[in-house]
From TrEMBL:
InterPro entries: GPCR_Rhodpsn (IPR000276), GPCR_Rhodpsn_7TM (IPR017452), Olfact_rcpt (IPR000725). Residues 41-290 form the G-protein coupled receptors family 1 profile domain. It is a multi-pass membrane protein. GO terms for cellular component: plasma membrane. It holds the Pfam family 7tm_4. This is Olfactory receptor. The chain crosses the membrane at residues 26-50, 62-83, 103-121, 142-163, 208-227, 239-261, 273-292. Odorant receptor.
Length: 326
C-alpha cells in the first residue's frame, strides 16, 4: 500500500505566486528581469576575478568567485521553474525532479552559508593577524576550505534527500511553496514524520547557527582590533576591507531570519513572498554590494574593458591590413 501511495505521488503541484491571472505574466516578466540581473551580475564577478591575475591570487576574491557561482546556481534551481509556472501555467513537477530541486537548492544555500563564514575568517586573519596571513591563507589552504564548503553542503543535502525516499505520500500533492522545499514537502507525507521533522529542524538550526556564530566571533575580534588602531585613516582602511562582506552577511542572514523565524500563523502567500526575498533578491543584490563600494573590483572592470577595446582595435587593424585598407 505504501508503494502504491509513493507511485501515485509521482507528480507534485507547486502553488501560484498570484491567484489573479492578470498578474501572472507581469510577475513573470519582472522575475525574468531579476533573474537575468542575478546571472549576469554574478557571472561578471566570476569573469573579472578569473581573468585578473591579481584578484585571483587574493583569498578574499578567490572565495568571492565561488560565492558568486553558488548564487548563480541557487537562483537557477528555483527561478526557471517558477517562471514556467507563471508564464506557461505548468505547475506540476515530478517526484524525482522535486527531490533534485530540493537537493541542489539546499546545496547552493548551504555553500553560501559556509563560504560567508570562511570569508569572515579570512578578514579576521587579514586584520587581526596580518603577519601570519600569507601562511595561514595560502592558496592550498584556500582550495581546501572551498572544497570543504562544497563537500559539507553536498553531504548535508544528500542526508535530507535520503530522508524522503522511504516516505509515502497521500492524495494531497500540492506543495504550499513555489519550489520543492524540505519541510513543506515533509508535511505532505502520510506516515508519522514528527521525529524526523524535529531532528531535521534541530540539525538545520545548528547548520545555520554554527557559521553565523563563527562570523560573529570573527567580526567581534576584528572590531576590537580596529579600535586599537591609532590613526583614523587606518581604521577606515580596515573597515573598508570588511564593508562589502559585512553587507552581504547582513542581507543573507536578515532574509534568512525573515523567512524561517516568522510565526507559523502566516499564510502560504506570505511564506512565498518571504522566500522570494531569500531566493531571488539576495543573489541579485550581492554583485551590486561587492561592486559599488569595492575599488579593486572597479579597477579590474576597467582593466577588463580596456583589454576588450585593445583586442577589438587589434582585430580591426588586422582585418583592415588584410583587406588592403592599410
Amino acid at each position: 500500500m505504501a508503494k502504491q501511495n509513493h507511485t501515485d505521488s509521482s507528480n507534485f503541484i507547486l502553488m501560484d505566486l498570484s491567484f489573479q491571472s492578470e498578474h501572472q505574466h507581469l510577475l513573470g516578466l519582472l522575475f525574468l528581469s531579476m533573474y537575468f540581473l542575478t546571472v549576469l551580475g554574478n557571472l561578471l564577478i566570476v569573469l573579472l576575478i578569473s581573468s585578473d591575475a591579481h584578484l585571483l591570487q587574493t583569498p578574499m576574491y578567490f572565495f568571492l568567485r565561488h560565492l558568486s557561482l553558488a548564487d548563480v546556481g541557487f537562483a537557477s534551481v528555483t527561478v526557471p521553474k517558477m517562471l514556467q509556472n507563471l508564464l506557461f501555467q505548468v505547475r506540476t513537477i515530478s517526484y524525482s525532479g522535486c527531490l533534485m530541486q530540493m537537493y541542489f537548492y539546499m546545496t547552493f544555500a548551504n555553500t553560501d552559508n559556509y563560504l560567508l563564514a570562511v570569508m569572515a575568517y579570512d578578514r579576521y586573519m587579514a586584520i587581526c593577524h596580518p603577519l601570519l596571513y600569507a601562511t595561514r591563507m595560502s592558496h592550498k589552504r584556500c582550495l581546501l576550505l572551498v572544497a570543504i564548503c562544497w563537500l559539507l553542503a553536498s553531504l548535508n543535502s544528500v542526508l535530507y534527500t535520503l530522508i524522503m525516499f522511504p516516505l509515502s505520500f497521500c492524495s494531497s500533492k500540492e506543495i504550499p511553496q513555489f519550489f520543492c522545499e524540505f519541510f513543506p514537502l515533509l508535511r505532505l507525507a502520510c506516515s508519522d514524520t514528527s521525529v524526523i521533522e524535529t531532528i531535521s529542524l534541530i540539525e538545520s538550526y545548528i547548520d545555520v547557527l554554527a557559521p553565523f556564530i563563527l562570523i560573529v566571533i570573527s567580526y567581534a575580534c576584528i572590531f576590537c582590533t580596529i579600535l586599537r588602531v591609532p590613526s583614523t585613516k587606518g581604521k577606515q582602511k580596515a573597515i573598508s576591507t570588511c564593508g562589502s562582506h559585512l553587507g552581504v552577511v547582513v542581507l543573507f542572514y536578515g532574509t534568512l531570519c525573515w523567512v524561517y523565524l516568522q510565526p507559523n500563523s502566516r499564510s502560504p502567500e506570505q511564506n512565498m513572498i518571504s522566500s522570494l526575498m531569500y531566493t531571488m533578491v539576495t543573489p541579485m543584490l550581492n554583485p551590486f554590494i561587492y561592486t559599488l563600494r569595492n575599488m579593486e573590483i572597479k579597477a579590474a572592470l576597467k582593466r577588463f574593458i580596456g583589454r576588450i577595446k585593445t583586442a577589438d582595435l587589434f582585430q580591426f587593424l588586422l582585418c583592415s591590413s588584410k583587406s588592403g585598407f592599410l
